[in-house]
Amino acid sequence: MTGLMAEPQATAPGRGPSAYILLISIVAALGGLLFGYDTAVIAGAIGFLKTHFRLDPAMQGWVASSALLGCVIGVSFAGLFSDKFGRRRTLLLAGALFFLSAIGTSLPRDVAIFVIFRILGGVGIGIASMASPMYIAEISPAHIRGRMVSLNQFAIVSGILIVYFVNYFIAGLGDAAWQTAYAWRWMFASGLIPSGIFLALLQFVPESPRWLAENGQSDKALVTLAKIDGDEHAQKEMQAIEEAIEFEKQSINAVYAPGMRGLLLLGMALAALQQVTGINVFLYYGTEIFKKAGATVNAALAETVVVGIVNLAFTVIAVYTVDKLGRKPLLIFGSIGMGACLVAIGIAAQSGHVAAWLLLFLLGYIACFAMSVGPVTWVVLSEIFPTKIRGRAMSVATFSLWTANFIVSQTFPMMDSNLSLVHLFHHAFPFYIYAGFCAVMALIVWQCLPETKGRTLEEIEMHWAK
Ligand code: BGC
Fold it and tell me: Which of 2, 103, 106, 426 might form a disulfide with 185, Cβ 3.0–4.6 angstroms?
């Protein structure tokens, strides 16, 4: 079934998205919401899991991070799967895995079964992290593509924030004994609701027209393009897509040429830099950092929620500016702002004024990330590769992103406690490293990334071929 939801209306540059494109993008972005929901659900559950299964520190680490292993597995095959079987089936696979994992992680009697289903959920996160932005980029008209893909980031951050509240609510339903036995089960089971909605709504979403055209189904592609943006736009877009396919056929090597290798490297570098600039240190360890800075447990939790709210609010700025100002200015100014805030956090940590300064600069850092590096990295990754290899190329870049995430989240506690160098810097050392990577990011974007604002995916592809 391919039809949905609303009568097509044409969009022209300068006008907003039609109801149709907005609705199918929101459905695809539910994949992003589940990405956020499923990564963050563990934060509220880990304490209860620890008591219930009597976990030692090593097992605690494994239970908390096993989903990351699943993410890496998921992105490893998601690209090939999506190039072969289509974007829509890839989203369905992610939805099914989220659903299965919610059941499996809420019922287990032993920790091994829990971890197996948590890894399965991680596979879903990995797949959705690349498939949702890629699908949205491929269905969106060029002049609103950045805005539509940024919606996915908005959904990721919403998922993180929603699950904080869901966890808080569930934990409040019983006493300590009940929490240890059941609260964590309900936390994971709650994922059935968003994943069930995602699976149901995906039934109404069409396959990406670019994938259809690439796979010999141009007639179906044309129908979807017309629904998205009207007949006239559909004809033009179809012609450009077919020219790009023809070009790919004639110069099959162009897609795999050394230039493309460079492009892949650029994608991998941007993806890794989104992580090594430190975002998830603050999202995963934020509560601990606040406690160290002198906050009480409740104040630390409240500050964590404020971080989530600022993250969400400033993503809206990216949604509204990414197609007007462009990808490059947002990325460059955002990473410079993040770097400046990190240096300020480092200086505060060194001079012992931690509590007073930390929240201010940390919120500044989060705001800069949310309006630039957070959403725009995904926008760029979903649009810079040629259609023929987009799935696989995005898989490779996203693999680099999750690997970098794993390295950063594993090394932060080590850097924070073990290195003697750190004591020299009074816990400021990791922040200076992340600040250094912010400078690298600004430089690479400035020097190597072309501006893709307002250009069709086919125009971007031709740019690289030249
Ligand atoms: C990043 C995630 C991060 C999230 C939070 C995403 O763009 O890829 O690693 O947790 O933003 O805002």
Answer: 106
